[in-house]
Amino acid sequence: MAALSAAISEYWEGFMAYHRIMLKLSGEALGENGWLFDHEKIMAVAQVIKDVAQSGTQVGIVIGGGNLWRGRSGAAQGMDAVRADHMGMLGTVMNGIVMQDAIIHAGQPAAVFSALPVHSVCPGYQRDAADEALNQKGVALFAGGLGNPFFTTDTAVVLRAVELKADALLIAKNIDGVYTADPNQDPDARLIPDISYSEAIARGLKVMDLAAFKLCADQALPQVRVFGLNDPDNIRRVLQGERLGTRLHP
Question: Which of 34, 109, 125, 214 could form a disulfide with 115 if both were Cys (CB 3.0 to 4.6 A apart)?
Answer without folding.
Answer: 125
